[in-house]
Amino acid sequence: MTDISGINPNVPHQARVWDYLGGGKNNYEADRIAAEYILQSYPQMESVVRQARAFQGRAVRFLVKEAGVRQFLDVGTGLPTLDHTHDVAQRADPTCRIVYVDNDPLVLTHAQALLSSSPEGRCDYIQADARDPEAILRAAADTLDFTRPIALMLFGVMGTIHDNDEARALVHRFLDALPSGSYLVFEDGTNVVIPDAAKEVEQLVEEGRTYDYRLRTPEQIAWFFEGLEVLDPGVVSVSRWRPEHSTWGAPDEVDAFGGVGRKA
User: Fold this and answer.
1) How far apart are CA 190 and CA 21, in angstroms?
2) pLDDT, tens only, 134-149
3) What is residue 120's DSSP assignment?
4) Is 171 in contact with 154 (CB distance < 8 Å)?
5) By the 8 A CB rule, do 12 and 30 touch?
């Protein structure tokens, strides 16, 4: 992999670590080392990544097919994978418009090459930090119509912001700009399903062996939906949010919780 301006390949980055955990190849040695440290402490992390991606797909399909949403603002999107937000949304309705946001230059490079829209819709990418919602919203207005409902997608983003009040304020600055009928689709890491392993991962963060990330309790994750109508089944382990029917019963819980909320 060639070096790209603005990237430090010697420092693990969340998007690239998750790419490795999800079976991708767009990562550096530092990212792979950090991911292997995580897997040594928490072998189920690969399942967390898979279940988070599956939840995202189910939520997007619901929003397009049942809620009538045709616009998505995906902040902290990470590296493109199979069935990214625009793939799922435009498969359900080719007219959907999607704006991706991430602060990793490597994500931008791959997004420009791989995130191609259907002719009927539109797909755009903004290189920006989630901590600057005003800049993101201004740029997104070139693609999205802010008089019509928009789904705000936040997956694994707020864990990079340690202060609870700051993180909640950022989410609501985005939501305040969205019209009535918009949605929040939110997911972040928790420490309650396999708490001992999660504690070991938190220790890795403290030691600087992996990217900086704060795990939250399900109750703290539910705070991000304050003021919204939370859809059934509520804020749950992502594997339990409207799972596909299976003869094997409900899937195992994973240490990533999330949900979908509607703005009145």
Assistant:
1) 17
2) 999 999 999 999 999 9
3) T
4) yes
5) yes
Vertex 19 angle, CA 259 and 231, to 5°: 5
Q: Which residues pair with 154 in a beta bridge?
A: 75, 186
Q: Which amino acid is at 198?
A: A
Nearest-CA neighbor of 71 among 85, 52, 84, 91? 85
Are the beta carbons of 156 and 76 closer than 8 angstroms? yes
Contact 257, 235 (CB under 8 A): yes
Give the H/E segment covering residue 218: helix 218-222
Strand 183-189 versus strand 151-155 pairing type: parallel
Backbone angles phi, psi at 118, to 5 degrees: -65, 155
Answer yes or no: are the C-beta atoms of 111 and 98 closer than 8 Å: no
Other C-beta atoms lying within 10 Å of the C-beta of residue 16: 27
Structure-model confidence comparison of residues 32 and 16, the more confident one: 32
Report field, pTM of the whole predicted structure over 0.90: yes
Which of 182, 54, 113 lies closest to 46 in space, CA to CA? Answer: 54
* Phi and psi based region of residue 98 (left: phi greater than 0; alpha: psi -120 to 50; beta: remaining): beta
